[in-house]
Amino acid sequence: MRPPAIFLLGPTAVGKTDLAVALAEILNTEIVSVDSALVYQQMDIGTAKPDAATLARAPHHLIDIRDPAEVYSAGDFRRDALQVMQHLTDQGKVPLLAGGTSLYFQRLLAGETNLPPADPQIRAKLEAELQVQGAPALHQRLSQLDPESAARIAPTDPQRLVRALELWQLTGKTRTQLWQEQSTPSFPWRVLQLGLLPPQRAWLHERINLRFDLMLQSGFVEEVEELRARPDLHLGLPSMKSVGYRQVWQYLDGQFDWDAMRAAGQAATRQLAKRQLTWMRGWEGLQSIEVTRPELIERVSDQVMRFCETEKESRMCSKISSKSD
Hints:
325 residues, alpha/beta, Rossmann fold, Histone, subunit A, 54% helix
């Protein structure tokens, strides 16, 4: 009998952390972060990393586990997440995975792949073309080679565009063909997948704009200044491509004035949220919940309890139910 696990997904700034912490307290469990920026040390303000008080209420795993100069892949995440999930399950706890990095959730469920690793020469050539031609031009090229992948990858997502074109040059096959050749193993957990949605797009945009302003007021620029002073960090690294960090770095380079940097950072965050929502709409098995519904925490915790109680043989779920009573 597969043990239960909970996935809590949602766009940036929708309120995932608050709900995840409340659920972790109710279920007496811990949170596994599914966020490609939170893995990096020294990146606290711009990632909205949970503070010490929040971590005391609900311990988080897979945050602050990499130096910003290092690359952390979706495969790395899957390996680490499975290890933490098994540890929590062995303790009689339900793993609670919360975040907005869709690729991490996808790879966790899909399993390992035999896709070829990045080729430094091909990658460098494609990234040079990206700088000269722009992401829309690369997206148009991908549309001709692999229309299905192009439909799934936004023109504003250069990292995935470069990878898809790199795979074509390495193998002569499209990203879609390569993924179809992968075998999908059975996932070791039964999963309740919950997706937090904003009531309106304008509501989410207002929260995004306000949060970015609060980050600036809290010392975001100074945080990026310290990172930029390191000789081993540059804008080509995945960590420094994180939303907000690139725009502030460019501001420090003199490419933006303050107002333009602020507007660019807010716009990039809104674009990220749009991509996350688009992905969620196509995610099979996701149960959507509007984040502003009355008694949200109570409704979600009841849904979790019902999910656990569907398998009477699950000793873990009965323990959770008794703890919540």
